[in-house]
Amino acid sequence: xxxxxxxxxxxxxxxxxxxxxxxxxxxxxxxxxxxxxxxxxxxxxxxxxxxxxxxxxxxxxxxxxxxxxxxxxxxxxxxxxxxxxxxxxxxxxxxxxxxxxxxxxxxxxxxxxxxxxxxxxxx
Length: 123
Hints:
Blueprint: E1 5-12, H1 15-26, E2 40-45, E3 54-59, E4 67-73, H2 77-86, E5 90-97, E6 103-108, E7 114-119
Parallel strand pairs: 1-3, 4-7
Antiparallel strand pairs: 1-4, 2-3, 5-6, 6-7
């Protein structure tokens, strides 16, 4: 698959309860807290180079209802967002560097669904 889905993110009001649910339901094991963008108590499962999709679960920012989204790997965030906008989508979050991680961006598709983009090889 060109530009594969590489990460799933679940953010809600009770990160601990969400991790317990997904861990019990699917056997997911979560690592130590990481510094996610705009989330609290964000923890990852899976290995980015292990051949499977990674997942992150975190608490939401006060007053935000949370979300479930997936991240598509692209070679160039700016070019991908330009294509998204040309096809009727809108940029939700401009390219941003995750602390100690890759660059990411978010967009809404033409029906308003939030989707993430990640540039894994960005220096």
